[in-house]
Amino acid sequence: RSIDVSPPEHGETMQAIFADFERKILPGMTHWQHPRFFAYFPANAAPVSVVAEYLVSVMAAQCMLWQTSPAATELETRVVDWMR
User: Fold this and answer.
1) Could you tell me if residue 4 is inside a domain?
2) Could you give phi then psi for residue 64, rounded to 5 degrees?
């Protein structure tokens, strides 16, 4: 219950935002990549996944349809075919 009930009234520096994140959010998170966490096997914080997410964010593409992003649709189709 360390998260404020009301939003901040003024902007904060990135330093303050990261400090709040470390103090208020991280202690209450399950660390999925911890070597002693055996419940699930996620890959979202693996280095290759971080790089892939970065590339997706840089493009800011809306890849929901072939019409909006044909290359992404073709890539998704190809990768799914590889996994069959």
Assistant:
1) no
2) -90, -20
User: Would you say residue 1 lies in a domain?
Assistant: no
Over residues 16-71, the pLDDT tens digits come to 999 999 999 988 888 877 788 888 776 667 788 889 889 888 988 888 888 888 99
Cα dist from 46 to 6, 7, 49, 50, 81, whole Å: 34, 32, 5, 6, 23
Counting the structural domains of the chain, the total is: 1
End-to-end CA distance of the chain: 46
Range of the domain at 40: 14-83
- pTM of the full predicted structure? 0.50
Determine, yes or no, domain membership for 68: yes
